[in-house]
Amino acid sequence: MLNVTIEEIQRDPLKYLRQVETGVTFVIIQADKPIAELRPVVSSKQLRPFGLCAGEFTVPDDFDAPLPSEILSAFEGK
Question: What value does the mean pLDDT of the chain take?
Fold first, then answer.
């Protein structure tokens, strides 16, 4: 982690943002006290692989058929 003052960031914000993109973390200081941290966002969300459940189940042919009237009425609160 590198220390940087607010004044330094204000002079050239893109310089620091480019470094953050490469993985550098900055502690922003004011009057010799740390007030904030500027760091890259770490995404912990991994994408699920395409076809993860291939062959696990079969979509029925009538999947998109209209619902029976009694179920439809229940959804509509009738």
Answer: 91
